[in-house]
Amino acid sequence: MKAWLKELPYWLKIFRGYSLLSVRTVLESRTALVLFALGKLIRFLFFFGILILVFKKTSQLSGWTSTQTFLIFFLFNFLDSLTQMIFREVYRFRSLLISGNLDLILTKPHPPLLKVLLGGIDLIDLGFIGIFFLLVNIFLFWEFQGWLNLLLFWLFFANSLVILTSVHLLILALAIFTTDVDHTIFIYRDLFRLGQFPVEIYQQPLTFLFTFVLPLGLITILPVGTYYWLTNWSVAIFGLTFSLIFFCLSLTLWQRALRFYQSASS
Question: What angle do helix axes 147-178 and 182-193 make, rounded to 10 degrees?
Answer without folding.
Answer: 150
